[in-house]
Specification:
By secondary structure, this protein is an all-alpha fold. Helix content is about 20%, strand content about 0%. It has one helix spanning about 10-20. The longest helix has 10 residues, at about 10-20. It is extended.
């Protein structure tokens, strides 16, 4: 589920922030197929 957050007040600074983090004309790119993914990080399951 997507929840939209509205920035208040709707002034020039918040409009500029919103344009940088979520451009109105943005569309997700088309995936180019499958790829291999490797995750390197600490082991989080052994607390």
């Amino acid at each position: 589920m997507t929840t939209l957050i509205q920035l208040q007040p709707k002034d020039e600074h918040n409009r500029a922030l919103e344009a940088h983090v979520h451009p109105p004309d943005w569309s997700n790119p088309t995936p180019s197929g499958c790829y291999n993914l490797v995750v390197i990080g600490p082991e989080l399951l052994d607390w």
